[in-house]
Protein backbone atom coordinates (compact mmCIF):
# COMPACT_ATOMS: atom_id res chain seq x y z
CA UNK A 1 0.00 0.00 0.00
CA UNK A 2 1.41 3.39 -0.94
CA UNK A 3 1.76 6.17 1.58
CA UNK A 4 -0.82 8.23 -0.34
CA UNK A 5 -3.42 5.51 0.09
CA UNK A 6 -2.49 4.87 3.71
CA UNK A 7 -3.10 8.50 4.62
CA UNK A 8 -6.55 8.71 3.08
CA UNK A 9 -9.15 7.69 5.68
CA UNK A 10 -11.70 6.52 3.09
CA UNK A 11 -9.36 3.79 1.88
CA UNK A 12 -8.31 2.57 5.32
CA UNK A 13 -10.30 -0.61 6.06
CA UNK A 14 -10.19 0.07 9.80
CA UNK A 15 -11.77 3.52 9.40
CA UNK A 16 -15.13 2.01 8.50
CA UNK A 17 -15.04 -0.30 11.53
CA UNK A 18 -14.11 2.58 13.84
CA UNK A 19 -16.90 4.74 12.42
CA UNK A 20 -19.43 1.92 12.92
CA UNK A 21 -18.22 1.43 16.51
CA UNK A 22 -18.79 5.12 17.28
CA UNK A 23 -22.29 5.01 15.81
CA UNK A 24 -23.82 1.77 17.16
CA UNK A 25 -27.37 3.03 16.56
CA UNK A 26 -26.82 2.66 12.84
CA UNK A 27 -27.83 -0.90 12.11
CA UNK A 28 -26.75 -0.99 8.52
CA UNK A 29 -26.75 0.78 5.26
CA UNK A 30 -29.57 1.30 2.81
CA UNK A 31 -29.42 -0.77 -0.36
CA UNK A 32 -28.09 0.84 -3.49
CA UNK A 33 -30.48 3.02 -5.42
CA UNK A 34 -32.00 1.41 -8.49
CA UNK A 35 -30.75 2.55 -11.85
CA UNK A 36 -32.83 5.44 -13.24
CA UNK A 37 -34.27 3.22 -15.96
CA UNK A 38 -35.37 0.61 -13.43
CA UNK A 39 -36.92 3.23 -11.18
CA UNK A 40 -38.88 4.76 -14.06
CA UNK A 41 -40.01 1.30 -15.19
CA UNK A 42 -41.16 0.30 -11.68
CA UNK A 43 -43.02 3.54 -11.05
CA UNK A 44 -44.65 3.64 -14.47
CA UNK A 45 -45.72 -0.02 -14.26
CA UNK A 46 -47.20 0.48 -10.78
CA UNK A 47 -48.96 3.67 -11.90
CA UNK A 48 -50.36 1.92 -14.98
CA UNK A 49 -51.72 -0.90 -12.79
CA UNK A 50 -53.38 1.58 -10.43
CA UNK A 51 -54.82 3.57 -13.34
CA UNK A 52 -56.21 0.27 -14.65
CA UNK A 53 -58.01 -0.23 -11.33
CA UNK A 54 -59.42 3.29 -11.52
CA UNK A 55 -60.60 2.70 -15.11
CA UNK A 56 -62.21 -0.58 -14.10
CA UNK A 57 -63.98 1.19 -11.25
CA UNK A 58 -65.23 3.89 -13.62
CA UNK A 59 -66.56 1.25 -16.01
CA UNK A 60 -68.54 -0.59 -13.37
CA UNK A 61 -69.36 2.50 -11.27
CA UNK A 62 -67.73 1.03 -8.16
CA UNK A 63 -64.68 2.23 -6.27
CA UNK A 64 -62.02 -0.39 -6.99
CA UNK A 65 -58.86 1.42 -5.96
CA UNK A 66 -58.44 1.40 -2.19
CA UNK A 67 -55.27 2.51 -0.36
CA UNK A 68 -54.10 -1.02 0.51
CA UNK A 69 -54.02 -1.89 -3.20
CA UNK A 70 -51.73 1.06 -3.87
CA UNK A 71 -49.38 -0.29 -1.21
CA UNK A 72 -49.58 -3.75 -2.81
CA UNK A 73 -48.72 -2.26 -6.21
CA UNK A 74 -45.65 -0.61 -4.69
CA UNK A 75 -44.52 -3.95 -3.24
CA UNK A 76 -45.01 -6.07 -6.35
CA UNK A 77 -43.42 -3.55 -8.69
CA UNK A 78 -40.59 -2.17 -6.56
CA UNK A 79 -39.67 -5.16 -4.37
CA UNK A 80 -40.69 -8.17 -6.49
CA UNK A 81 -38.43 -10.67 -4.71
CA UNK A 82 -39.83 -10.09 -1.21
CA UNK A 83 -42.13 -12.73 0.27
CA UNK A 84 -44.63 -9.90 0.89
CA UNK A 85 -44.88 -9.33 -2.86
CA UNK A 86 -45.48 -12.89 -4.04
CA UNK A 87 -48.87 -13.75 -5.62
CA UNK A 88 -49.98 -16.04 -2.80
CA UNK A 89 -49.30 -13.31 -0.22
CA UNK A 90 -50.95 -10.57 -2.27
CA UNK A 91 -54.15 -12.40 -3.23
CA UNK A 92 -54.71 -14.67 -0.23
CA UNK A 93 -53.38 -12.05 2.18
CA UNK A 94 -56.00 -9.50 1.11
CA UNK A 95 -58.77 -12.10 1.27
CA UNK A 96 -57.71 -13.04 4.80
CA UNK A 97 -57.59 -9.35 5.71
CA UNK A 98 -61.11 -8.93 4.34
CA UNK A 99 -62.36 -11.94 6.31
CA UNK A 100 -60.83 -10.55 9.51
CA UNK A 101 -62.36 -7.14 8.83
CA UNK A 102 -65.84 -8.53 8.22
CA UNK A 103 -65.61 -10.84 11.26
CA UNK A 104 -64.68 -7.98 13.59
CA UNK A 105 -67.23 -5.64 12.00
CA UNK A 106 -69.97 -8.17 12.75
CA UNK A 107 -69.38 -7.71 16.47
CA UNK A 108 -68.25 -4.08 16.70
CA UNK A 109 -69.95 -0.75 16.25
CA UNK A 110 -69.71 0.67 12.73
CA UNK A 111 -66.63 2.80 12.19
CA UNK A 112 -64.95 2.02 15.50
CA UNK A 113 -61.23 2.78 15.34
CA UNK A 114 -60.70 0.36 18.24
CA UNK A 115 -62.34 -2.43 16.26
CA UNK A 116 -60.32 -1.50 13.17
CA UNK A 117 -57.11 -1.88 15.16
CA UNK A 118 -58.24 -5.29 16.43
CA UNK A 119 -59.13 -6.35 12.88
CA UNK A 120 -55.67 -5.34 11.66
CA UNK A 121 -54.06 -7.38 14.45
CA UNK A 122 -56.20 -10.40 13.67
CA UNK A 123 -55.41 -10.07 9.95
CA UNK A 124 -51.70 -9.96 10.76
CA UNK A 125 -51.96 -13.05 12.96
CA UNK A 126 -53.97 -15.01 10.40
CA UNK A 127 -51.66 -14.03 7.55
CA UNK A 128 -48.69 -15.12 9.62
CA UNK A 129 -50.32 -18.49 10.35
CA UNK A 130 -51.26 -18.94 6.69
CA UNK A 131 -47.72 -18.04 5.56
CA UNK A 132 -49.10 -15.21 3.43
CA UNK A 133 -47.29 -12.15 4.79
CA UNK A 134 -48.65 -9.00 3.20
CA UNK A 135 -48.82 -5.84 5.30
CA UNK A 136 -51.33 -4.02 3.06
CA UNK A 137 -53.81 -6.81 3.88
CA UNK A 138 -53.93 -5.50 7.44
CA UNK A 139 -55.01 -2.16 6.01
CA UNK A 140 -57.75 -3.94 4.06
CA UNK A 141 -59.17 -5.16 7.37
CA UNK A 142 -59.11 -1.58 8.66
CA UNK A 143 -60.88 -0.25 5.56
CA UNK A 144 -63.64 -2.82 5.96
CA UNK A 145 -64.28 -2.01 9.61
CA UNK A 146 -64.23 1.75 9.05
CA UNK A 147 -66.11 1.87 5.73
CA UNK A 148 -68.39 -1.23 5.93
CA UNK A 149 -68.50 -2.07 2.20
CA UNK A 150 -71.05 -4.68 1.15
CA UNK A 151 -69.20 -8.04 1.07
CA UNK A 152 -71.04 -9.34 -2.02
CA UNK A 153 -69.63 -6.45 -4.05
CA UNK A 154 -66.36 -5.74 -2.25
CA UNK A 155 -64.81 -9.21 -2.01
CA UNK A 156 -65.05 -10.10 -5.73
CA UNK A 157 -63.65 -6.66 -6.63
CA UNK A 158 -60.83 -7.11 -4.12
CA UNK A 159 -60.01 -10.55 -5.49
CA UNK A 160 -60.05 -9.32 -9.10
CA UNK A 161 -57.95 -6.29 -8.21
CA UNK A 162 -55.26 -8.35 -6.50
CA UNK A 163 -55.11 -10.75 -9.43
CA UNK A 164 -54.82 -7.78 -11.80
CA UNK A 165 -51.93 -6.36 -9.74
CA UNK A 166 -50.11 -9.69 -9.84
CA UNK A 167 -50.64 -10.08 -13.59
CA UNK A 168 -49.45 -6.54 -14.36
CA UNK A 169 -46.33 -7.10 -12.25
CA UNK A 170 -45.72 -10.36 -14.11
CA UNK A 171 -46.12 -8.64 -17.48
CA UNK A 172 -43.98 -5.64 -16.48
CA UNK A 173 -41.16 -7.90 -15.33
CA UNK A 174 -41.15 -9.59 -18.73
CA UNK A 175 -41.17 -6.34 -20.72
CA UNK A 176 -37.94 -4.95 -19.29
CA UNK A 177 -35.16 -7.44 -19.91
CA UNK A 178 -32.98 -6.40 -16.97
CA UNK A 179 -35.86 -6.35 -14.46
CA UNK A 180 -35.97 -9.06 -11.81
CA UNK A 181 -38.48 -11.67 -12.87
CA UNK A 182 -41.74 -11.65 -10.96
CA UNK A 183 -42.87 -13.68 -9.19
CA UNK A 184 -40.08 -15.45 -7.34
CA UNK A 185 -42.67 -18.20 -6.76
CA UNK A 186 -46.39 -18.51 -7.41
CA UNK A 187 -47.55 -20.48 -4.41
From the structure above, extract its key features.
mainly alpha
Coarse shape: globular
- Tell me, rounded to a whole number, the average pLDDT: 84
Largest sheet: none
Approximately how much helix is present in the residues? Answer: 55-70%
**Distance between termini?**
52 Å
Radius of gyration (CA) equals: 21 Å
Structural class: mainly alpha
Number of helices: 8
Low-pLDDT segments, ≥5 res? 5-9
Secondary structure tally: strands: 0
Helix and strand sequence: HHHHHHHH
Count of discrete domains: 1
Q: How much of the polypeptide forms β-strand, as a percent range?
A: under 5%
Region (Disordered): 1-20
Domain HPP transmembrane region: 36-176
Pfam family, one: TM_HPP
Protein name: HPP family protein
Condensed summary:
This protein has 187 residues and is mostly helical.
Describe what you observe in this structure:
The structure is a single chain. This protein is mostly helical. The chain contains eight helices and no strands. It has one domain. It has helices spanning 3-7, 13-22, 36-60, 67-78, 87-107, 113-129, 135-147, 151-175. α4 packs parallel to α8 (151-175).
